[in-house]
Design a protein that fits this description.
Number of strands: 2
Radius of gyration: 19 Å
Shape: globular
CATH topology: Arc Repressor Mutant, subunit A
Number of helices: 6
């Protein structure tokens, strides 16, 4: 790998990191939740049948105990429900409530609105087209292990 390639990777990482930090700050609603809390609500939003606490902990790469604390807070705020599993009564299924959906969708909407405005105000139509074309390769990077 050449020094030029390494510099490109470093520049890309820096720009993406700065964009992510800026997006986090641009959602007033999102600032009320930690990164893990936002991510957990997003996982629950995308799950049609709910998830086990251990599944959520595994996906978030945190301990079951830490996830338990997050879920307790969510339960108090009315963001989730807990339902006993029909197949194994020892297990509890976590599902997002309408209130939980509303909060995470508000976070996403605030970020999307800011990013849309930023794209309109700072990029030409040609630059926006370049960014659109880059979405595929960027997605490939995200999916790479």
């Amino acid at each position: 790998m050449s020094a030029k390639d390494l510099q490109f990777a470093s520049d890309l990482r820096t720009v993406i990191t700065r964009l992510v930090k800026k997006l986090r700050k641009k959602s007033i609603t999102g600032q009320q939740l930690s990164l893990t809390e936002r991510s957990t609500l997003s996982l629950l939003l995308s799950s049609e049948t709910g998830m086990l606490p251990s599944e959520l902990a595994s996906l978030e790469k945190i301990t079951n105990q830490s996830m338990s604390q997050i879920l307790s807070g969510f339960l108090e705020k009315g963001y989730i429900t807990r339902t006993n599993s029909e197949t194994d009564k020892r297990k509890v299924i976590i599902s997002i409530t309408e209130k939980g959906k509303s909060i995470i969708l508000q976070v996403l909407s605030e970020r999307d609105e800011w990013l849309n405005e930023a794209l309109r105000e700072t990029c030409t139509e040609e630059e926006r087209d370049i960014i659109k074309k880059a979405l595929g390769p960027l997605t490939n990077l995200v999916d790479f292990d």
